[in-house]
């Protein structure tokens, strides 16, 4: 906040002339002492920032090349946000705290200390069923690879979290809906095995619509396959921590995503086994408010905690501090 | 009386003609026995030819045939001294999964499986074979008991899928399936799974992560129903037959992919035309697998099971 903006953006509806939200904690909370001075400073800074935003935006109105990507609309509350502000806020909407879906690289950067190593994605047999629906499966894979930095939906990195060693696996919803095929299963096993070799925790951030249907039964078989890996982590006495992110459903939820020693969920994340439309069609009743959201699972005892993205790294570090294998002297 | 599937229409017509002739023969002096005999042979040949080359979508219909023998039929036909055991000790008793102690050709086992029911009251009682978390948690309890007392585990899989409902989600359907799969993998006793009809996705694998997996000849096993795949991938409900072919759901396909270990032959025209013969063939196949597994150590059994699944998708 407060940095002058030099971009070229058009003001979209709902923004121009809208007064900024004042910072929280009004002065009377502290009897008008030090914090009231800080409050005034923050207020001035917020107003200045808003003025500079409006100024920069107005100056750019005349320009032709105005990329839409500069502004974005919060998918939850509809607030117009500067994309850069949103990213700087860990892709969390500053207005409604909606946790946006983010890519693998951003996850690594947010959670691992600098100097981590991205591990190679294991190769697997491609298109074993020679599958085609409206498109050939290899064409879908090719398109997904062209649009994503990593070769499939699960990528591991080895690094430290506030100094504690861990292998971190991240599933990316942008890659074919994060779906679990053989590449995801094999990457999960490789991540767990690397953690065993390094005698450290395996942390997985899940995001998937479910199994990759283009691999048929072979995708279903990744459920027991990944479960073999979680059992091996357990046998080695190493922590296995699951962070459920939006959305995690289907066969992924019904295997490694529910087997963590500690289950963390991001606020508002959709987490479930069956899809909501399928359930609706089966029971023909309105689904309860907040059904299959992180907070709902927490209330029903399915996750240990719902953790805001800004606190996630610290929470993982604390857990590793308690659970990480003690070196035998 | 067998109810015919759509693709069996020519056979149904022949059978109707035979029945008509028999009725006529009874009331007359005419000698039409040889004609009936000829038609009966033709019908049998047609049935054999049809079932020898069923398409994946036709197999899907056979696998779901309302008269196809289910878990309790197999219990009645080939298992003896069945002692059903109920409840998950957490929430309730889910009759979509039935289990208990039983004897199969002299061998004491723990048998667990989905039961779909055979008429409206029993289908409702067993929730059409779609289990809730308490069903999977009962399966876990029975598997752990089997390991404790050194009994091999036999599972008979026949489900369209785990139940998709609000309460099932609230009670942790995903967690229950994950833990049940884990319980299979942890077993220190032999485990043989057989897909009887439909092996529907996570609801099936939860009790099918076994040392050896068999399938009946016309059973199907799939990550999603052909109808579901059609509506998601083709965005129309009309491509289920194409989806069944593309996903390779048949026992024959899955054997060649190395996902299952054996196909159990069904009587000509499917298990529903001769449940006793189907049950006998299944019992023999399970018995052979168990005999080979009981001589292995607990560690070998766990390792073989782990390697079996780790190998799927490895280069």
TrEMBL record, chain B:
TM spans (from-to): none
Major localization class: cytoplasm
EC annotation from Swiss-Prot or TrEMBL: 2.1.3.15
Any one of the GO BP annotations: fatty acid biosynthetic process
Catalysis performed (reactions): N(6)-carboxybiotinyl-L-lysyl-[protein] + acetyl-CoA = N(6)-biotinyl-L-lysyl-[protein] + malonyl-CoA
Compartments where located: Cytoplasm
Function: Component of the acetyl coenzyme A carboxylase (ACC) complex. First, biotin carboxylase catalyzes the carboxylation of biotin on its carrier protein (BCCP) and then the CO(2) group is transferred by the carboxyltransferase to acetyl-CoA to form malonyl-CoA.
GO cellular component entries: acetyl-CoA carboxylase complex
Organism whose genome encodes this protein: Novosphingobium silvae
MF terms in GO: acetyl-CoA carboxylase activity; ATP binding; carboxyl- or carbamoyltransferase activity
Organism taxonomic ancestry: Bacteria, Pseudomonadati, Pseudomonadota, Alphaproteobacteria, Sphingomonadales
Alphabetical list of NCBIfam families matching this protein: accA, AccA_sub, PRK05724.1
Principal EC category: transferase
Superkingdom of source: Bacteria
Domain CoA carboxyltransferase C-terminal: 31-292
Family: Belongs to the AccA family.
Description of how the protein assembles with itself and partners: Acetyl-CoA carboxylase is a heterohexamer composed of biotin carboxyl carrier protein (AccB), biotin carboxylase (AccC) and two subunits each of ACCase subunit alpha (AccA) and ACCase subunit beta (AccD).
UniProt keywords, alphabetically: ATP-binding, Cytoplasm, Fatty acid biosynthesis, Fatty acid metabolism, Ligase, Lipid biosynthesis, Lipid metabolism, Nucleotide-binding, Transferase
Pathway membership: Lipid metabolism; malonyl-CoA biosynthesis; malonyl-CoA from acetyl-CoA: step 1/1
The protein, known as: Acetyl-coenzyme A carboxylase carboxyl transferase subunit alpha
């Amino acid at each position: 906040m407060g940095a002058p903006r030099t971009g070229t953006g058009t003001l979209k509806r709902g923004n121009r002339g809208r007064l900024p939200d004042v910072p929280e904690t009004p002065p009377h909370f502290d009897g008008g002492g030090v914090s009231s001075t800080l409050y005034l400073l923050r207020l001035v800074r917020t107003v200045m920032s808003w003025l500079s935003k409006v100024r920069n935006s107005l100056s750019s109105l005349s320009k032709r090349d105005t990329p839409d990507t500069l502004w974005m609309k919060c998918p939850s509350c509809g607030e117009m946000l500067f994309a850069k502000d949103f990213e700087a806020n860990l892709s969390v909407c500053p207005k409604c705290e909606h946790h946006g879906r983010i890519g693998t690289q951003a996850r690594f950067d947010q959670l691992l200390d600098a100097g981590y190593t991205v591990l190679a994605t294991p190769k697997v047999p491609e298109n074993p069923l020679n599958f085609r629906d409206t498109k050939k499966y290899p064409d879908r894979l090719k398109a997904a690879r062209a649009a994503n930095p990593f070769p499939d939906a699960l990528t591991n990195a080895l690094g430290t979290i506030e100094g504690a060693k861990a292998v971190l696996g991240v599933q990316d919803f942008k890659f074919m809906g994060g779906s679990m095929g053989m590449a995801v299963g094999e990457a999960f096993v490789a991540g767990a095995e690397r953690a065993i070799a390094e005698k450290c925790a395996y942390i997985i951030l899940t995001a998937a619509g479910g199994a990759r249907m283009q691999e048929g039964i072979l995708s279903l078989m990744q459920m027991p396959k990944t479960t073999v890996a979680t059992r091996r982590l357990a046998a080695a006495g190493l922590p296995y921590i699951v962070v459920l992110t939006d959305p995690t459903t289907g066969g992924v939820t019904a295997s490694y995503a529910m087997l963590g020693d500690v289950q963390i969920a991001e606020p508002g994340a959709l987490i479930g086994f069956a899809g909501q439309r399928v359930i609706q069609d089966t029971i023909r009743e309105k689904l309860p408010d907040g059904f299959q959201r992180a907070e709902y699972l927490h209330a029903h005892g399915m996750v240990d905690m719902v953790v805001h993205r800004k606190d996630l790294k610290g929470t993982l570090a604390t857990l590793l501090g308690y659970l990480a294998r003690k070196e035998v002297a | 009386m067998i109810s015919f599937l759509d693709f069996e229409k020519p056979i149904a017509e022949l059978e109707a003609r035979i029945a008509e002739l028999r009725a006529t023969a009874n009331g007359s002096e005419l000698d039409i026995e040889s004609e009936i005999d000829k038609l009966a042979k033709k019908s049998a040949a047609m049935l054999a030819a049809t079932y020898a080359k069923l398409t994946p979508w036709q197999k899907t219909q056979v696998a779901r045939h309302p008269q196809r023998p289910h878990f309790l039929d197999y219990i009645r036909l080939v298992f003896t001294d069945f002692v059903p055991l109920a409840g998950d000790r957490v929430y309730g008793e889910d009759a979509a999964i039935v289990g208990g102690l039983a004897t199969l050709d002299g061998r004491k086992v723990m048998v667990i499986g989905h039961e779909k029911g055979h008429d409206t009251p029993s289908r409702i009682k067993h929730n059409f074979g779609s289990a809730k978390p308490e069903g999977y948690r009962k399966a876990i309890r029975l598997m752990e008991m089997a390991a404790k007392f050194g009994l091999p585990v036999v599972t008979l899989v026949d489900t369209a899928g785990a139940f998709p409902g609000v309460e099932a989600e609230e009670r942790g359907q995903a967690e229950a399936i994950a833990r049940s799969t884990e319980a299979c993998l942890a077993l220190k006793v032999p485990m043989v799974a057989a897909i009887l009809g439909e092996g529907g996705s996570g609801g099936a694998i939860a009790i099918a992560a076994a040392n050896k997996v068999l399938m009946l000849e016309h059973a199907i096993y799939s990550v999603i129903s052909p109808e579901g795949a059609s509506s998601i991938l083709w965005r129309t409900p009309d491509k289920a037959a194409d989806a069944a072919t593309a996903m390779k759901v048949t026992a024959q396909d899955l054997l060649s992919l190395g996902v299952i270990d054996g196909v159990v032959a069904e009587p000509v025209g499917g298990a529903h035309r001769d449940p006793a013969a189907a049950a006998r063939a299944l019992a023999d196949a399970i018995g052979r697998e168990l005999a080979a597994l009981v001589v292995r150590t607990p560690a070998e059994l766990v390792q073989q099971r782990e390697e079996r699944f780790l190998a799927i998708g490895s280069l």
